[in-house]
Structure prediction request, 391 residues.
Amino acid sequence: MPWPSDYHEHAEPTATPRAIEAVWTFTASADGVHVVLPDGRMDLIVAFRGDDDHLVEDLRLLIVGPAQRWTDVPVVRGDRFFGIRFRPGRGGACLGVEATALRDGGIFDNDVDEVLGAHARALRAAANPVALAVAIRDVARKRAASASELRSSVQRAIELVHLGGGRLGLEDIAVAVDMPERTLRRHLSHSLGLSFKAYSSVLRFQRTMRLLTRDDRPLSLVEAALEGGYSDQAHMTREFRRHGGFTPGARPPLVLIGMDFD
Amino acid sequence: MRLGYTLIYVSDVAAAVAFYESAFGLQQRFIHESGLYAEMDTGETTLSFAAETMAQMNGLAIRPNSPRDLPAGIEICLVTDSPEQAYDHAVAAGALAAKAVEEKPWGQRVGYVRDLNGCLVEICSPIHP
Prediction:
């Protein structure tokens, strides 16, 4: 996988609330545009400038909603980002926003202050980037710890969507978790912020991209289309264009955020 | 090439082991400290359980088993001299009855249950040539 070296994920201790999937940082080493590929997750992000032992400058607060399309993010050398990625279906509850309202979008700055209240003030009060890194983890943990849990059947349904690589039908999942299809569709859409169909499609895209970029021996385009769950190679190409803005034969663009590790 | 393992992906490895011990009288041979993988003591061909998340870690997409869904088109076949008792014991221990033991034209006695995850398990008498 062509990870940009500017992007790092940090292993979290096991005491971290389950709702938090990853803590990441990004520092732009050059001017440019970074492509953020969709992963259906939600992130709390602080963007700023300043070295570790200096003041935090140009601080911006962002809550990024679940995406099904890529985003181009222009960056200038030295731009820094700290992010918390929430597990699928948990971002809305943890951050106190409607996930569906943030679909392929997000809220920024003053709107984030309104949503996070005292927690936003804690982020703004950080004297330097080191303190900011501590503060954003702390805020995320507190919010995750006090957020309402997903119903276990909905939690299991989201797991099944992932285990099937986005290839299982809603009907099968509804049977497995013993919930009427319509009810499950509503619960999934509400918690994930994307429709079941859109979310499954994002997962197929993510998984197939990995099948095509495995370091040692990637699958061929034909093999990857079949294993990824596409009806044919043309279908895979259309879906890659739609979600990522590139074709399966090309190397995926570098990403800023939005890739999950497995 | 030889058949080494039959591996079932399950949501709860420890629960699967406990079920196969109580319902079918098999013994656990090994469980990894992570709790994500276990082997039963089944002789030359090992029956293993692995957490569904391991399939994901290996880059695989799977259709997880569910007792509420149609079973996958594959079964585990356990052989015993007293299939009727084994079948009753399994059902009493929580296996789902699928087909009671009956004698086949070739003399073998065969019954079917489904395990805690909905996987088909055949319980049959050995075939004596």
Notes: The CA atoms of residues 29 and 249 of chain A lie 27 Å apart. Strands of chain A lie at 7-10, 20-27, 32-36, 42-49, 57-64, 71-75, 80-86, 106-108. The first strand of chain A starts at residue 7 and ends at 10.
